[in-house]
């Protein structure tokens, strides 16, 4: 299978070659490469991407686009039903300790979560 044979909408098997905070790099058997952006992993805010995807894991993904011979894909999560996923669905689900250090550590996360909820509430 080559890039010419893969089309948007196709479901293909890939291997995760690296996991970064912004997404997972993938590769097909034929050494075609691509990325699953963190926003294409699930509809919820992801606190820890490594709770969803591991390096060397084999996944089925849906091809969103191919640009410059690189695949942009979304994860088909029907195959993954693990219950240890770390999603944040509301601010009350955050477990934190009180104090200024904790406030400083969590502020960016809270800001991102608030922006995410505002954008998706429309």
Automatic annotation (TrEMBL):
Domain (S1 motif) ranges: 9-78
SUPFAM superfamilies: Nucleic acid-binding proteins
Gene Ontology MF annotations: mRNA binding; structural constituent of ribosome
Gene3D superfamilies: Nucleic acid-binding proteins
Matches recorded under Pfam families: S1
A GO biological-process term: translation
Name recorded for this polypeptide: S1 RNA binding domain protein
Organism field: Gemella haemolysans ATCC 10379
Lineage: Bacteria, Bacillati, Bacillota, Bacilli, Bacillales
């Amino acid at each position: 299978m080559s890039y010419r044979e893969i089309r948007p909408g196709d479901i293909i098997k890939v291997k995760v070659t690296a996991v970064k905070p912004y997404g997972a790099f993938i590769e097909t058997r034929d050494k075609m490469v691509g990325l699953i952006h963190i926003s294409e992993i699930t509809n919820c805010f992801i606190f820890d991407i490594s709770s969803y995807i591991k390096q060397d894991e084999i996944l089925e993904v849906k091809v969103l686009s191919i640009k410059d011979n690189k695949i942009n894909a979304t994860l088909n999560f029907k195959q993954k039903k693990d219950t240890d996923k770390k999603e944040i669905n509301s601010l009350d689900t955050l477990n934190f300790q009180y104090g200024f250090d904790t406030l400083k550590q969590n502020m960016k996360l809270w800001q991102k979560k608030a922006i995410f909820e505002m954008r998706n509430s429309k």
